[in-house]
Prior knowledge:
The protein is α/β, with parallel strands linked by helices.
Amino acid sequence: MREITVEELLNKNNPVIIDVRSPIEYKDGAIPGSINIPLFTDDERVEIGIIYKNEGQGAAKWRAMELVSPKLPSLLKEIKKTAKDEIPVIHCWRGGNRSKAVTAFLEFSGLNAKRLVGGYKAYRQGILKEIPELLPDRAVVLHGLTGVGKTEVLKILEDKGYPVLDLEGMAGHRGSIFGTIGLGEATIKKRLIPFYLSGYRN
Length: 202
């Protein structure tokens, strides 16, 4: 099975990253730019977890196979369609059974794929280690009252080529007065960290 480390992934340009975790896991935090093609639904994941707790690993694996078998062909086709001519990077939470199974089935069907070693957990740990190296020696914080045009200033600076991090935009939250108005759902803290670092890296 072909594998890729977090360090190798971070040095790739525009990799196709397939997150096979359940939708709720993906929503809770994900690699920027990754695409969620879940192996299990949220309910199926809960069911497997209950079986694992009550009946053990063997019974949980059997139930997982029963749930996956009917939808496996469509799942592989969706990954193939998404990846196009690129070699997709497959990952789950810790680089365990889910990503191993999907990568193995992709290879069995004649499609190239790489499994992310350590999964999303390793990715988070990897980017957190990069923070001291990525932070600039000097950073300027733009602050002011609500509605004075801070976001517009940031956009102008970004257009002129300056490195900019729009924290309100990334968080999907405009502070205590306007909150998420016009921005959709707010981004939770765990999901923000990868986006912050993605901004620093770029």
